[in-house]
Amino acid sequence: MSAPPSDGPRPPRQVVSFVRRGSRLTRSRQDAWDRLAAQYVLDVPRGVRDTLPAPEVRLDPLEVFGRQAPLVVEIGSGQGENIAAAAARDPGRDHLAFEVYLPGVAETLDRLDRAGAPRNVRLLPLDALHAIAQLLPPGSVTEVWINFPDPWHKSRHHKRRLVNPPLLDALGEVLALGAVLRLATDWAEYAAHMRQVLDADDRLESLHPEGPRPHGETTDPVPADMPALGWAPRFDGRVRTSFERKAQDAGRLVWDLAYAWRGGDHRREG
């Protein structure tokens, strides 16, 4: 694993959507890392933080994957259930996962091995919010997945939420016209926040403007102004992970959203 820079300028203060947790690996995860990291993990030079690429780093998907194919990006891939299953299921598309939690990356490597070692997937242990626009060429991404991001419940932490205007601006640098943005959360208040952010951006168009909210009751509070329509059905391509099952066992609903990127200029008020 790459070590963070030990000298150089202090990193600028940036709002991040994650807490960098410990990177100690279990024996099995260390074994998966030792065997498979060179094949799957893109170990790019780091910048002022170990979750940022150096300023000169760019990625060419043609060089990374050895071909031209539709590119799916997952931001916050966790332990890799979805990206490993998708890569094995859909060899006609390439898959790139951003995940800053190194034990999760190691677990993903093990899942890829058990999924038959698909060749159409790469992993980046970097902060997607502050790296994706630099790393990837304009128009190179055809689909983005954001599944169950940290809800950052406290009001003073809402600025840390991944789904906020700065992310949409970063994605706008790399999304192809017609690219699909798929999101899911098990917290109703965060679902309402997502709707507020996404519906306000005229570069996005809901793929399910008449879609009803998920059926059933939920144990967490639902905002009074929660939209009744505009929700996507559960994405068939999303693996029902242990995380999602725990949320449902706790009585929370899962809220899905899907939008198409139609591009254009977007100037936020304020």
Notes on the protein architecture:
This protein has 270 residues and is an alpha/beta fold. It has one domain: Rossmann fold, CATH 3.40.50.150. 29% of the residues lie in helices and 16% in strands. It is built from eight helices and seven strands. The protein has helices at 27-40, 61-65, 81-89, 102-114, 128-135, 165-172, 188-199, 242-249; strands spanning 71-75, 94-98, 121-124, 141-147, 175-185, 204-206, 255-261. The protein has a seven-stranded mixed sheet, sandwiched between helices. Strand 2, helix 4 and strand 3 (121-124) form a beta-alpha-beta unit. Helix 1 (27-40) packs across helix 4 (102-114), helix 3 (81-89) runs parallel beside helix 4 and helix 5 runs parallel beside helix 6. The longest helix is centred in the first third of the chain and has 14 residues, at 27-40. It is globular and about 50 Å long. Mean pLDDT is 91; it is low at 1-8.
Quick overview:
With 270 residues, the protein is an alpha/beta fold. The chain contains eight helices and seven strands.
List the helices and strands and how they pair.
Layout: H1 27-40, H2 61-65, E1 71-75, H3 81-89, E2 94-98, H4 102-114, E3 121-124, H5 128-135, E4 141-147, H6 165-172, E5 175-185, H7 188-199, E6 204-206, H8 242-249, E7 255-261
Parallel strand pairs: 1-2, 1-4, 2-3, 4-5
Antiparallel strand pairs: 5-7, 6-7
